[in-house]
Write a structure and sequence with these properties.
This protein has 192 residues and is of the alpha+beta class. It folds into two domains: 8-97, Immunoglobulins (Immunoglobulin-like, Sandwich); 113-176, no CATH class. It has helices at 60-64, 113-128, 152-176, and strands at 8-10, 15-19, 29-36, 43-46, 48-50, 53-58, 69-79, 86-97, 133-138, 145-149. The strands form three sheets. The protein has a five-stranded mixed sheet. Strands 2-6-5 form a three-stranded antiparallel sheet. Helix 2 (113-128) packs antiparallel against helix 3. The termini are far apart.
């Protein structure tokens, strides 16, 4: 059983942990975790006393109710003898990840926001190859017209920026999975 709060939760999984908080023994205090986010509704989870420490269980239904995204949590202790004595005793954050449906035909977006932006820029650059016109207006009867063209250099700068972000994400993921900092490059020497 884990003895610290989770840093990653997958929707639909049950999470359990125990926690001792110095100065707030479970035989004198109650403890409630409050998870909040701008990603969606939060959830409150009440701990139960386990001798002088607290045992916390987030049920599968509670984690399934959370939207994928970053949540901030706070733990609040309430004195059993004086319920007006409420103290925030610790806080942190947790990433809630999408839990897969049991239906294997459901698709899931696996790209990061930066990868999606980079793909959109690449699509815009492909479209740019055939036309750089963003707006075109014709007025009648005077016959005025206005054309607004996009600057290819703006797209190139955006692409460079997002390509760097994607590269950093992939390096971080490679390191998390036990890979090396630099990606291996194979060299083939030719000769007769």
């Amino acid at each position: 059983m884990r003895t610290t709060e989770p840093t990653i939760i997958t929707q639909g999984e049950q999470i359990e942990w125990t926690r001792s908080i110095s100065g707030y023994p479970a035989d004198e205090w109650t403890l409630q975790y409050r998870f909040r986010s701008n990603a969606g509704p939060g959830v409150n989870v009440d701990a139960v006393a386990d001798d002088t420490q607290f045992a916390i269980t987030m049920t599968a239904a509670e984690t399934a109710s959370l939207s994928a995204g970053r949540y901030i949590w706070q733990a609040w202790a309430t004195n059993i003898a004086d319920t007006a004595n409420i103290v925030r005793v610790c806080e942190g954050q947790v990433d809630v990840r999408l839990g897969f449906s049991e239906n294997p035909t459901h698709t899931v977006e696996t790209r990061s926001a930066n990868e999606i932006a980079l793909a959109s820029i690449d699509a815009a650059m492909t479209a740019f190859a055939t036309s750089d016109v963003l707006e075109y207006e014709i007025s009648t009867p005077a016959g005025s017209r206005r054309v607004k063209r996009s600057a290819r250099s703006d797209l190139m700068n955006l692409r460079k920026y997002y390509a760097q972000l994607v590269s950093l994400e992939r390096t971080r993921d490679r390191l998390r999975n036990g890979g090396s900092l630099m990606k291996s490059i194979g060299i083939v020497a030719g000769g007769n």
